[in-house]
Design a protein that fits this description.
single chain; OB fold (Dihydrolipoamide Acetyltransferase, E2P); 2 domains; rod-shaped
Length: 153
């Protein structure tokens, strides 16, 4: 093989190597980023507002307890034997109902500040969540909504 033939073979090999590097494979590259997926649990904080909400009532309070005790004492003063027991129970129940009603009429609704956070979700929709704290959230924060709470992502 003469020098010109060797040069031609080397040129063909080099060209084939270069062309094969340009070929496409269907297998994803390990360095390629994952495709962006639209989500209904991830988004960006659009607004944060402070709102006043009425605190939950936890059921009968001191009014019912005091009313039940006073009613039971007064009911115990009536009758003898089983009639006395019935009067005590009726007085306790009646006193508890009256005491609870008096407490409800005299108490002001308990208001507390909460944060109403509106999030523009990745899928284009909006979700509004009301929670007691915002921690480090601010407008523009990337967030995740889970169990009706907003968390910074």
């Amino acid at each position: 093989m003469n020098t010109h033939q060797k040069f031609a073979v080397a040129t063909i090999i080099a060209a084939a190597s270069l062309l094969s590097a340009c070929g496409s494979t269907n297998a994803p590259s390990a360095a390629a980023p994952a495709p962006y997926q639209i989500s209904n649990t991830y988004g960006v904080v659009d607004s944060i507002q402070i709102v006043q909400v009425q605190a939950d009532r936890r059921g009968p309070g001191a009014g019912a307890v005091v009313g039940g005790i006073v009613g039971g004492i007064l009911g115990h003063q009536v009758g003898h034997g089983s009639g006395n027991t019935a009067a005590t129970v009726a007085g306790a129940v009646g006193g508890a109902v009256v005491g609870n009603q008096v407490e409800q009429n005299n108490s002001q609704p308990q208001m507390r500040e909460m944060y109403q956070i509106t999030v523009r979700m990745d899928n284009g929709s909006y979700q509004t969540v009301t929670q007691d704290t915002i921690a480090d959230l601010q407008v523009g924060s990337r967030v995740h909504i889970e169990n009706n709470r907003v968390y910074r992502f």
